[in-house]
Write a structure and sequence with these properties.
The complex is a heterodimer of chains A (114) and B (896). Chain A is of the alpha+beta class and 114 residues long. Chain A has a single domain, classed as Winged helix-like DNA-binding domain superfamily/Winged helix DNA-binding domain (Arc Repressor Mutant, subunit A), CATH 1.10.10. Chain A has helices spanning 11-23, 28-38, 47-60, 83-107; strands at 26-27, 63-69, 75-81. Chain B starts with a helix and ends with a helix. Chain B is elongated. Chain B is built from 27 helices and 21 strands. Classes of the chains: A alpha+beta (114), B alpha+beta (896).
Amino acid sequence: MARKQEVQQGTLALMILRTLDVLGPLHGYGIARRIEETSKSRITLNYGTLYPALLKLEQEGFVTAEWRQSENNRRAKFYALSVAGRKQLARETREWHQTADLIAAFLAPRLGES
Amino acid sequence: MRHIRAALARVAGLFAGPRADDDTRDELQSHVDMETAENIRRGMGPSAARRQALLASGGLVIGAEAVRAQRGLPWLENIVADIRYALRALRRSPAFTIVVITTLALGIGANTAIFSVVRGVLLKPLPHRDGDRLVYLRQSLDGPGGENISFSVPEVHDFRDGAKTLGGIAEYSQFTLILQGTNDASRLNVGLVTGNFFDVMGLSPVLGRLTRPSDDGPGVPPVMVLTHEFWMKRFGGDPAIVGKQVKLDGTPVTVIGVLQSAPFFPDRIDALLNMVISPHHLSALMVQGRTHRMTEILARLAPGATVEQARAEVAAVYSRMQRENRESYDSASHYRVEVIPFKEALGERARLTVWLLMAAAAFVLVIAAANVVNLTLMRGVGRDQELVVRAALGAGVARLRRLLLVENLVLTTVGAFFGVIIAFGGVRLLTSLAERYSPRANEIRLDAVTLGFTLTLAIVLALLLSLVASVPREGTLGGRIAAGARRLSGGLQQQRVQRALVVAQIAVSVVLLAGAGLLTRTMIQLSEVPTGLQTEDVLTMQVQLLSLTSGFTPDAIAASRTGYDRIQREVRALPGVIDVGLGSTMPLQFQEAQLEVKAEGRALAVGEATPRAEVRTADPEYFRAAGIPLRHGRAFTSTDREGSGRVVILNQVLADELFPGEDPIGKRMAWTGDVLRFTPFTGDWRTVVGVVGNTRDGGLDAAPRPAVFMPFAQELTVGGGLVIRAQGQTPSLVASATRIVRAIAPTAPIENVLTVAQIKDQSVAPRRLNAALVSSFGILAVIIATVGIAGVLAFSVSSRTNEIGIRMSLGADPGRVQRMILGEGGVLLASGLALGVGGAFFAARIIRGLLFGVPPHDPITLIGVAVTMAAIGIGACWVPALRASRIDPAITMRAT
């Protein structure tokens, strides 16, 4: 079994935004599924983590939520990226890349180190 | 932006209501359903699929709760819930709530009010720039009237040249001027100041400008700066006042500015002027006379200098001054100079009284808090069950503690709220008290700092109450729940705490009562001091017809003599008037100025201080009208007039000092000393023709001041006033006598229109207020303590109902049970009394300075207080003891 990983503060929001960006409007179950799959099951989200995060994004105005019929005729609450959310995603993606580059540069093996 | 939006959304979430919860539940449920369907699709059985989905969810309730927490502001919701709960709990026990809030309101109210006085009068930083760098210099010598003799200009110069730790020395000379209105006149207390005064004092104008060095010296126009208080009082805060002219002693003076609000010392003043208004202050006499002391010194410490350094330097300069001018410093009179931080000088007279009141208020609060703690403890026992039930339902210890804390906070803040309302009323009363002691009384107010103090008190009390409440310790909840038994008496330890609190309450009450008793006895002793006057039904009226600045020209003197004669004649003709005397000094009042005197043919013994006496005048009727008894010789007669032989009348204390063991009549005395040069009096020998009794002119608690009376008609420059004795209707004379004076001297100031009884009362009134305040605190304390001891015993009885029932069924008779309970209370009472009397001994030593005619360890007071407290205490024990003895064993046993 793959090692479970704690969801880092702030990264969950980015994951959710990215998921909605890629897949379009989606319900909580779909988002959780997608994140699990993408992380190769290293991340599982329980409701107490996922739904407060969704609500927070909604409060911040990055996603909108609305009840709709799902593909197999169930009622579910669908989340969609707002304009502000798209900008936020772009910004956070950029920042994340910068941070990753920086850390990578720091942790790179030194010259002469075998 | 995003944070603001999120915050707003969360605040809105507070009011989302149950529909939002339904929404969440539906959403989570749909998640479970979808996951279950997916699991079935993967081949699980329906129930296993559902189980798996629920497991993955991490708990629907927990999830919903987490969403809820994100939706609103959970901490706020919790606090609101706690407050709502606290209010409900308090409403359920209204008696407890009312008693606690009332007790706290009284305690907190008293402390808030008194603290506002302590702060306003003693603690608040001075309004002066760097006010803590200001010092006041005081020259004093032995004997009555020598407490503050101020400085002469040469002395000021010596300090200015010699004391480098004093960065700036401002001169300030107290003076009175007559302000002429359109149809009246009033006397102004003014300060004549040097140009550097305001700079040294660090004061700024609110309007116009202040005096500056260019206003010094002769040949400049007189200018006036109004104090803020006087500007408001007399000119209604008129902003157009600057530049206007007023007439002071007949001279037009320009108002150049209004000073910021600031306290003055040692006198309250209305305005400050440059010296030029008083030619005398610029004369060679004043400027060169070392003994011509009319100037107060206020100085600012040089940068870096400390008060200690200034003291040392001033002392050195002063002793050099004394060495070089031996004739100006009678060595036997012990001339000395103190350097006092200005703020301390301002608080000097108020300090002891104000701290006494603060201590008394603090004591009341201690007793009140002890009572509330006791009540809380008793209530806590009854609530054990409630807390256990809450714990069983899932409240953690932390939550329980918070609940209690919120409840106590509600109690104490509501108490504090009512306390502040009480304080608002109290502050007004206290300000009028403080005005008698402190020039800073107008700075007393319930400001933010005071209210902060109150809030702190409330919070500290709430914490204290929460600490003593019995909350089960972490991990013991289970045991408590399992036990489930009802315990009524609380633990042994809790009982000990309660008893200790009762003992403390009694002890503190005794201390307060002892203080109240001593102060009350002081007040009674003081009002019983014989004034030396034969009657108090005398009206006095200071009427100034001649003033220093108008000049003592022969014409002016003659005119004022005629004026006084006419006034006397016409007042005497008023119905009911028996005697009308004229004199410089009204009975029970005194003259600031003292001069050195000598007796003919009597040399001072080595080390004997030169006698000093007040300069007064009296006409032939004065002593009879004032009710001052003539001890020897004769009163003045109409033949003691200008040009006739120089005669004087001494008061007894001076006669004894000048002519010990001799008959003074016919002997001669004279004014003496260097300072005589600066007065209108000569050093001629004057024959003593009479001796009058001493009167308590310096206050009822002060020794009689030596005084020399000269014939009024011979020395009009000393000033004058009317002493009117009438048949019974003294107050009704005020109007008619004032009318007469106004008709004869339209612009002369009329002041101190008071009966002698009123003057006397002014001497007793502050003590009476002191005694009344401390007594009311004492009574309050006793009431609270009585409730405390009765409450604790009653509680003890009700929790021992079983035990008592058993005892009685085994044969104890009611009397025995009663004695048992009384004994229990008696031990508490006795320990409290013993501690309290000990404390009173200690406390009385501290307030010694406020006592008069009563030794600090006055046995009558202490015994009286102890007996009173014992009687009240036994009374308080009696009620629960009686109840205990009436317990019916049959009923109690069945109830178990």
